[in-house]
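User:
Care to share a sequence and structure tokens?

Assistant:
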Amino acid sequence: MKTQNRNRILVACLLLTTASLFAQDLPLAKPESVGLSSDRLERIAATVQRNIDDKRIAGAVTLVSRRGKVVWFKPQGMMDREAAKPMRPDAMFRICSMTKPITSVAVMMLYEEGHFMLEDPVSKYLPELKNPKVLVKPASGEPYSIPATHEITIRDLLRHSSGLTYHWNPDLGPLYNKANVAHGLLPYDGTIEDSVKRLATVPLLFNPGDRWEYSLGVDVLGRLVEVVSGKPLDEFFRTRIFEPLGMKDTYFYPPDSKLDRLATAYTYYADKGLNRFPDTPITEENTTYSADYPYRGPKKLFSGGAGLVSTAADYLRFCQMMLDGGKAGTTRLISRKSVELMTQDQLGKIGTDQGFGLGFGVYGVKAPLSELGSPGEFAWGGFFYTAFTIDPKEQMIVIFMAQLHPTGDLTLDRQVHTLAYQAIND
């Protein structure tokens, strides 16, 4: 009982500290002042706690902001269950593919400076990608490759229509592994330059522009940022995005002094339940991944598609910048017109019912919404179970952060999104 009381006091103190930090640049407010119900928002806490009690997750941080004000911000459960460490408001999470929108913003910053056009072949800046080839798998006989009908454009990389894929693809995954191509979720003895050059030796899955396939294309964009800007990707992020936005806890490799805030990763298998991520990597078909990549290995890879670690508070600052049309206070990162371009569907007929812009999924624009939300909301998530939504219509941001993979088909992230929307009462 004494331990439980100490934990409650610790969490309360951390919440007060975080509230003070928020108040410096993003005011806190009562939910009712921005048209949300306090009582109905509590359903988020109840649902998250039920999943903690059922041992589906160890802990999570949830956050809801509306009209520029944080009205819900709650850590629950444990950031390290085995060590009995309560979840902290400033816990750091492996955000994985939530890195992609940040890289996409970096690309658009350089685009706005006149360095390239979106329809430019990326080979103009990364010559190793010139004259791509496409894999052909005949009904009988060995696979072979033929010249692609188009070059990969920068737009293709931003909207995932490049012909690249990920290691989990059964056709190209083995070739990626053989070529030692990085995906960002494993310690890697090389740089993003090394990985992109190796990726360029592997054929594409299809001709650029033909269809949508989630891919390593944003890692290629990370290398493009380095070449065009003349800066390593981590330095570009730090000086051009993180520092202007006040994102003080977002890194590819957190400093040792902050590693105690990195939430522990867990796995969930139906026959084994919830367990701490093992010390050795997990292999699923062609993909091998670990949870130790933020603090082990050479730390030379800056994966534009997967590599960042961040907090709910930091990622909120990035989301608020997008919601505010590309600016934070008096600081503008990108123009309102670029935000508009990035958050409208760029796929047209080549995509499925889900829209995708330049770095963001866009929902309710090509097919009706399947759950509560707003047409035009843009969002994405990460491999280790993090997610965000930015809703221009409702002026709302929802952030969910946990650390779990495999998830066992858990839908808690989507439930939190729904529960945020059902709290609207204006």
User: Anything to note?
Assistant: The domain at 100-237 is CATH 3.40.710.10 (Beta-lactamase). Residues 1-24 have pLDDT under 50 and may be disordered. DSSP finds eleven helices and 18 strands in the chain.
